[in-house]
Amino acid sequence: xxxxxxxxxxxxxxxxxxxRFSIANGFDPRDYETLHRWxxxxxxxxxxxxxxxxxxxxxxxxxxxxxxDNAPMTxxxxxxxxxxxxxxxxLCGDGERVAVIEADESGHFRTVTLAELxxxxxxxxxxxxxxxxxxxxxxxxILPNRVEGLVALLATLSVGAVWSSCSxxxxxxxxADRLGQIGVKVLFAAPRYRYAGxxxxxxxxxxxxxxxxxxxxxxxxxxxxxxxxxxAADCVAFDDFGGDGPLTFERxxxxxxxxxxxxxxxxxxxxxxxxxxxxxxxxHQKEHLLHxxxxxxxxxxxYTNTAWMMYHWLISGLGCGATVVLxxxxxxxxxxxxxxxxxxxxxxxxxxxxxxxxxPKYLATLAVENYAPGRLHNLLSLRSLLSAGxxxxxxxxxxxxxHVKRDMIFASISGGTEIIGCFLLGSPIHPVxxxxxxxxxxxxAVGVMDERNAPIIGRQGxxxxxxxxxxxxxxxxxxxxxxxxxxxxxxxxxxxxxxxxVAEITAxxxxxxxxxxxxxxxxxxxxxxxxxxxxxxxxxAEIEDCLVFGAPVEGDEEIVLCVKLNDGYALTxxxxxxxRRAIRDGASPRHxxxxxxxxxxxxxxxxxxxxxxxxxxxxEGKPVKNMASLANPACLEEYRMLHRSEAx
Length: 648
Hints:
Low-confidence stretches: none
Mean pLDDT: 94
Strand content: 15-25%
CATH architecture of the domain at 112-253: 3-Layer(aba) Sandwich
Number of helices: 20
Shape: globular
Radius of gyration: 24 Å
CATH class of the domain at 112-253: Alpha Beta
Structural class: alpha/beta
Distance between the termini: 34 Å
């Protein structure tokens, strides 16, 4: 079977944004390796070229890059004399164009022009100034993915303040653990939200949250005006906050904080990652324009909540002249006839989505349900399907091209909250290969190193970045923030970013992600990734979900596979044997699990990621440090009771 599933048309080497950028800077679009070497070898020239190509609004300053030879990663600075405002760049363009489409699980569909969005942002910014918010202050959100959340974010950025958000389905402790770290002064919140057909009233939780965060002086409430929590803060309805006035933008330095995002926090308190204004804008413009080939008039969607980095990534599409879709609610609904996977695809068809973002778990559910979007929906506008959050298995690449659309780019992308972007992602001028992330991001000196700190090709090792880039965190918020930041990413290799992924760079320059380093399996002392095991399990109709982790045993480690089975199936010796055979054939004998257990649920973080470490810790009888970061912590009790004698 050929590994190439899609190839670019010849015209892409002249007409795509990436080709035009290459030619404008003196490079042959067919020689990406040379372009990439220039982008990391002369970072000042490259990132200034991105600034110019993206037509960034602001002053770039005379100096493009200052290298610190003693601390080349953590001490170097980009565009130190620049002055800009992120919201100003996201709100530029023709006021009559549709900037936002708001959709939800009930079929609601609303369009908002750029002019209307600007008016809403101007009013909200006026309210923030009246509430005492100035440059550098922190504003928080506990909001669903609707227009009000975007308006609050853009208004915060417009006045030079710092935005940080949580999803309303987070528990009170999880929210206070995050927003409580940064001294939020004004808090936007939704007392009620809808998910999977059910209304959720969290007004009581809001009172608890405000009580835990005494810095909050003003609580701005969206939705029904009658739902007001009993708390010490001044409560104001969203529609009554602010007044008429012009939209103005407070320009700030390149390194001025824009967002605070949070790690999942399962190994302790969530780390509050501070992202700089210029780094966010340049990284996202580069990824959207060059790697995503986003054009004015395109329509971008990503299924996300307001806490995940992909929300911030998505809304930066506004700066490329694209329309962004804000979808609120469940991606798959339950109906009397079974699961209904249609909501996102119905939205995509109606909105004429060009760039559709999703996850491997969602794609796996579509496959189990035999749901073929390409057959059931008109996806003529779709040019690019993107997936993030976990490795995409080779079989899922085949499924996408068979059941969604053949003539499109499928980009498995990988990066993280820490860089608010991607190390490995797609390209409009490269072939798509089964199971591979197409290219290393421009401006990112991405590689894989072994235990000798030597770069390797075609073998698994640690994903690293060896040169500085603008979207590296400014710091971690709070006491000893710089020290905690350095300890997280630079303790293993001095001044080399070690990301925490087990990866492989192929001979084609593409990448493969094999799993997280902290969940790497080491049976017999040999390190192997978990992605191949997950990929094999996805091919079983009997398996709804699964979790893989290592458990200590007599000086070694054994592989434990926990499977959540679909209704009507049982973990029989025959099924266990079939699973082991598939893993052996698809990966290697070393990947075959020693133990297979049937479980009722798989633990996930609030951000929707499997939590292998928490399951292992629980199995060992140890406490999980931050249960508030888990979406379903009660399920861990089942893992405490797993015993080898009961395994298949």
